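Before any further analysis, backbone shapes were mapped to integers, which produced the following:

***
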Amino acid sequence: MAKRSRTRYTQEQKRSILAAAVKERLTALQVQKKFGVRPVTYYSWRKKTGAARRRGGPIGPGRPAGLALVVRSAVADRVRSMLPEIVRGEVNSYLDSVLGGNGVRRRGRPRKF
């Protein structure tokens, strides 16, 4: 298998390929077939220029773009508030099973074994 020679693209060529890909909604494989640009190179250009878009395309009509962020933030806050109690309960349960405790916590110096 022969090695392909490396092709250098000018900034203008990159911009035009990216613009055509966005306009025609081409996938990386379609860009490769049409322009000869490898998918990894295409994705690299998109990332560097900020042209990369999230999977699934734009959010549908009637759904504000910020709603997903609001929901994500609310869920994250709720998990953050619940997590310490969950972890504390799991740790106490584990320690009770390993050390044979009865669930009563004493203050002061730890017991010597």
